[in-house]
Amino acid sequence: MSNRRKKTDRHDHETLLPPVDFDEEKHEKSDLRDDWGNIAILFFLYLLQGIPIGLASAIPMLLQNRGASYKQQGEFSFAHWPFSLKLLWAPIVDSLFWKRFGRRKSWLIPTQYLIGIFMLILSLHVNRWLGAETNGTEDQSIEQNSTLNIPLLTVIFFMLNFLAATQDIAVDGWALTMLKRCNVGHASTCNSVGQTAGYFLGYVAFMALESAEFCNSYLRSEPAPEGLVNLSGYLWFWGLVFLVTTTLVALGKRELSPSIDRGHEEHLELDIKQTYRLLVDIMKMKPILTLVAILLTAKAGFAACDAVTSLKLIDAGVPKDKLALLVVPLVPLQIVLPLAISKYTAGTRPMEVYLKAIPYRIGLTLAAAGIVWITPAIIRDHHVPYYYYILLLTNYGLYQIALYSMFVAVMAFFARVSDPSVGGTYMTLLNTLSNLGGNWPTTVVLWLVDYLTWKRCSNADDNDCSNGALKDACSGGGGKCTITIDGYYIEIFVCLVYGLAWYRWGTGKIRQLQELPLKAWRVARRVPRTHSS
Fold first, then answer.
1. What DSSP character marks residue 257?
2. Is residue 526 helix, strand or coil?
3. Of 205, 285, 415, 493, which is the most exposed, with the fewest CB atoms less than 10 Å away?
4. What's the rounded mean pLDDT across residues 377-393?
5. Cα dist. 435→255, 292, 418, 441 in Å?
6. How confident is the model at residue 392 (pLDDT cuts 50, 70, 90)?
7. Which DSSP symbol is given to 518?
8. Domains along the sequence of the chain with CATH
9. Are strands 481-485 and 525-528 parallel, antiparallel or unpaired?
10. Contact at 8 Å (CB) between 288 and 282?
């Protein structure tokens, strides 16, 4: 059989799906006239998603006040894992659904009902599982550790975040068809603003309202020993909100099929096996491989600043509570900033904003390292002057502007290039890779700080304080372990060099990806063609 015959047979049995007509000039300007209501719904759905994330972030603070050990804190940290693992079940969410009810609503409505039910049940028992706060004595801490039910709390909040991650997959996919094609860039704005607002309500607002000191200082005319709310009541309130609003969405918002009139493309329906194969096919695409390389390496240049700077400030004497409170004034900025940036990322080249933000972020990384350097000279006798907090707030605020510019830009790019026929899986894959690109450098730089730091005992030159026994020997002899070379600054320098080199390499690669036609990002899967007998 000739090669030509073999090629003909192969095309008789395989075809490319979906057959989509790609118009290279099909780049419309954003037109929100018919999408304001949809944007409001997306914003609220993402806000609800941020509530359990924020509450799960508040639990470690409560555990710390109840005598939890760091081992127990580490155990509870598994509750945050679902958002890093959701790619494992995203194809299931994308392929299994009740067509009559809606592809995305088939998952969105049940998961939000379950979140509400979990919150209501948790509200009845969480105070008992957390126990009462200790006054810091060792006996009470030991007794409290016996009443803390860390494994159960971990499982419950793991499930809450699992459901929130599943809701995220459904909402990400729904956004691609709920909005007109020319408006999908605004989905990233709804995501970032909504999640930030939800996280603020679940974490910052709760911690403030739960604090007796905050409530007595700012919200009460007469002091009281407790805050305005406790975790049980807060969970009960948001559980009811989830149940009521989910019912309204289920009854009042109809999920429409992709429409050519709204710029959508034909939807491809696949079973679970085909969807997982599709995921493999996506990973094999040349543009995706380039994007994977970018996403997994882009954030390494900022890792030392992101992961270590705050810890170094605490070591230098900045109070932890004051450092945490610096975030609060910037929450409005984090909500408004994506709205301001979105008009620059809704077009065909959203990553230009990403590229422009990188040099500023690199410069602010150096500024942060400089602040760490001068901090010991500023803080005297545990007194931190107000101008120092202003300096910290200014640097952190500018850094957040650069960070959010990059975040909103890359989310807009994901929304633009994602194949709507498998939107949930496609978007989740890209988001997972982006998250992974931030997680692995953080782990590496934290792990390397001690190895790159050189210490000496002040009264014994042969003691390098490299382990607990040597540190005890130094302090027992009346000495003090002092840092001669701080690994943090070595990492800052390495990250700086790496960041500049990456920027030179990544700029060209990113612009090449932006110039690709949309059809280059569509998934071409070969499936058996049905022949008539």
1. P
2. strand
3. 493
4. 87
5. 29, 11, 17, 11
6. very high
7. G
8. 35-131+150-254 (1.20.1250.20), 278-525 (1.20.1250)
9. unpaired
10. yes
Report which residue type is found at 124. L
CB 130 within 8 A of CB 148: yes
Helix axes 36-64, 231-252, angle to 10 degrees: 160
Q: Which residue has the higher pLDDT, 136 or 220?
A: 220
Instruction: Return the closest-CA partner of residue 466 out of 447, 446, 452.
Output: 452
Structure tokens at 459: 């009264």
**How high is the pLDDT of residue 506?**
94
Asked if residues 332 and 205 have their Cβ atoms less than 8 Å apart, the reply is: no
pLDDT in tens, 271-323: 778 778 878 888 889 999 999 999 999 999 998 898 778 768 867 877 655 66
Q: Within its chain, how far is the Cα of 37 from the centroid?
A: 26
Q: What are phi and psi of 81, to 5 degrees?
A: -70, -30
Angle ∠(219,225,231) on CA atoms, nearest 5: 80
The two structure tokens encoding residue 353: 């904003």
Nearest one of 101, 314, 61 to 204, comparing CA atoms: 61
Instruction: Provide the 10 A C-beta neighbour count for residue 447.
Output: 10
User: Is the N-terminal amide bond of 91 cis, ω within 30° of 0?
Assistant: no
Dihedral (Cα; 168, 171, 173, 176), 10-degree rounding:
-140
**Contact status, residue 513 vs residue 355, Cβ threshold 8 Å:** no
- Read off the pLDDT band of 96 (50, 70, 90): confident
How buried is residue 209: exposed, middle or buried, by Cβ count under 10 Å (0-12/13-18/19+)? middle
525-528 and 14-17 beta bridge pairing? antiparallel
Q: Nearest to residue 305, comparing CAs of 358, 361, 258, 242?
A: 361
Q: How high is the pLDDT of residue 292?
A: 93
Kindly tell me the number of DSSP H helices and DSSP E strands found in the chain.
Answer: 22, 4
Is the pLDDT confidence value at 422 over 60? yes
Where does residue 110 rank: exposed (0-12), middle (13-18), buried (19+ CB within 10 A)? middle
pLDDT computed for residue 111 by the predictor: 94
Contact 50, 201 (CB under 8 A): yes
pLDDT given for residue 196 in this prediction: 81
Residue 27 tokens read as 């780049």
Distance CA 438, CA 294 (A): 12
Assigned token pair, 300: 């390494």
Q: What is the CA radius of gyration of the chain?
A: 26
